[in-house]
Amino acid sequence: MSESLASTAPAFRPVHGVSRSVCGRTWVERLDSASSLIAAAISQTHGIPDVVARVLAGRGVSVQGAPGFLAPRLRDLMPDPSALTAMEAAVARLADAVQRRERVAIFGDYDVDGACSAALMAEYLQACGLAAPIHIPDRLTEGYGPNVEAMRALVGEGASLIVTVDCGTAGHAPLEEAARLGADVVVLDHHGAPEQLPRAVAIVNPNRQDDLSGLGHLCAAGVVFMTLVALARELRRRGFWQGRAEPDLLAALDLVALATVADVVPLNGLNRAFVRQGLAVMRNRRRLGLAALIDAARVETAPECWHLGYCLGPRINAGGRIGDSSLGARLLITGDPGIASTIAATLERLNEERRAIEARAVEEAEAEAGRRLEAEPEMPVIVLASPDWHPGIVGLVAARLKERFGRPAFAFATKPDGTATGSGRSVPGADIGRAVRLATEEGVALKGGGHAMAAGATIRAGDLERFRDALAASLPARSADEPPDPLVIDAALTAGGATIETVRAVETAGPFGQGQPEPVFAFGRHRLVDARQVGQNHVRATLKSGDGSNLRAVAFRAADKPLGRALLGAIGQQVHVAGSLCLDRWGGGERVELRIIDAALPV
Q: Taking a C-beta distance cutoff of 8 angstroms, is the pair 385, 461 a contact?
């Protein structure tokens, strides 16, 4: 079964005749004639609603593969962990440490994937009876990845084995220092790897150049989970669990799911199973820290995939961005309800502070980027810096720039010592992780790394333009008159057809995210009954179909953009709108809501 997207080339005619929407996009059908036949066969063979069958066919699902796609099982999709290069060496060293009751230190990253990865490893090793302290570096004073001072401190505290999670693949000097001091290092990572790897007992990374596992889409927590599966197997073989209660690894899938969604890795294959089964675990509320965070975030329903990315993830990240980097990992492993509640409340407060800081920086960055693009419309990458931007929010600024201007973007915070630390976000087809690695190898960046869609770097503040030129040389050129990508439509619906049952049926094809886009539906010639600005620049609207059915709708962060202005100016008129459907469960009950992403006026 292939889970790649079906062709997004335009169909014979634009959907609802929309060749240029208010956002400048053409609306095209996701399914060509061959895929439409597959959708019909899926529906007829398995009794699946037509709209769901179209969603499946549009994601490359075959007639035979439809049942397995709708109900992915970990046992069917989980490969042998030994397929990962260096896994056997990593597991042998970890198993030795468990049997010898060594002190194993865990060095993580300060984002969600790092916190979840560290918590996974610490929780398992502690269940084995080991002391497994976690060190999460401070973003401001230590930066990303292992550093020499931290390695010295961990060894000084008695660690004979250091496990780096979500980092370490490019940590030559720190890992060399750990080895010099007599400690072994095992690296569990997923970031792009240089050809020359650092010194370690084992570097397990599906994206190292000699790894043939085909698991490069895993986040670090996925790699850690596979390592723990292999470790459990090895300890079982050695007889370690005789007379002991073996930890339930499936109960840890809530952490793998959270990291998978928050790190924006492709939601296909094994990752889909991680998220589906991890959400089921999370809904049991057995992990006190996540339950407390769900409550602090005022998530009033059972967590869904989008909650992980938009509610829980940002709050865990807030600690690493503008507060205490260790808060996320501590929250995830605590067994004390009081501590869980206190940390969750702290993260909620930090997240509110982060929003305010981010809003000011984004406003400034968008204005500066707009000025630069007027002068250089073909600029393939936006690179901006400011001494006023907090280092913890530059990744968020880059994400907003990418969304606003449709091209890769980097934002840097300059420091008094003459350096600048920054983060970048990219668009499909532009691998900024590779671009940063090349810039680092050329000496343009002091250090850096990442993956195709997100990366980070430290540079000399005076080398900002040089860094931009190095990235531009590695990224696809952009034409000044290049039109926006077409909007790919999964199916046409009406307000009357957008029922709770329809939305629930579509949800069975999820989770949706990176690599598995949320279905987009087109609603043709609906009257815009009302539209008004609400909240933080959102537009709330009501649509009415020809049969009199109403549909609630919202366009997020759109009031000052072409989409929002068009909606606010078309009250009482017929419009074509396109967006994704969801169930609004706030305040009890369920109501269908359309999240509008584009609109057009009928010709």
A: yes
Name the strand (E) or helix (H) holding 182: none
Give strand ranges (E) for 429-506.
447-450, 454-460, 487-489, 491-493
| pTM greater than 0.85 | yes
All residues at 6 or more sequence positions from 587 whose CB lies less than 8 Å from its CB, including other chains: 300
Alpha helices in 128-269 (DSSP H): 148-156, 172-180, 220-237, 253-262
Asked whether the beta carbons of 399 and 361 are under 8 A apart, the reply is no
Pairing relation of β-strands 202-204 and 184-188? Answer: parallel
The Cα 509–Cα 500 span in angstroms is 15
Compute the distance between CA of residue 369 and CA of residue 415 in angstroms, rounded to an integer.
21
Decide the pairing of beta strands 134-135 and 202-204: unpaired
End-to-end CA distance of the chain: 41
Higher model confidence: residue 351 or residue 485? 351
Distance CA 475, CA 434 (A): 9
DSSP state of 195: S
pLDDT in tens, 519-540: 999 999 999 999 999 988 899 9
What are the Cα distances from residue 24, in Å, to 19, 375, 400, 485, 599?
8, 21, 19, 9, 10
The yes-or-no verdict on residue 51 having pLDDT over 90 is yes
- Coil, strand or helix: which one is 162? strand
Specify the amino acid at residue 130: L
DSSP annotation string for 16-29: GG-SS-TTS--EEE
Q: Residue 7 class from Cβ within 10 Å (0-12 exposed, 13-18 middle, 19+ buried)?
A: middle
Residues 6+ apart with CB under 8 A from 398: 409, 410, 411, 422, 423, 424, 425
Element (H, E) at 527: strand 521-534
Determine the Cα–Cα distance for residues 38 and 60; give it in Å rounded to an integer. 9
Question: What element of type H or E holds 327?
Answer: helix 327-333
420: how many CB neighbours lie within 10 A of its CB?
28
Pairing relationship of beta strands 419-425 and 454-460 according to DSSP bridges: antiparallel
Q: Within a 13 Å sphere around the CA of 82, how many CA atoms are in the beta-carbon half?
A: 6
- pLDDT tens string 209-221: 999 999 999 999 9
Structure tokens at 247: 């930890």
236: tokens are 């079982």
Largest alpha-carbon pair distance within the chain?
Answer: 76
The answer to whether the beta carbons of residues 145 and 110 sit under 8 Å apart is no
Q: Which residue has the higher pLDDT, 598 or 478?
A: 598
Environment class of residue 232 by beta-carbon count within 10 Å: exposed (0-12), middle (13-18) or buried (19+)? buried
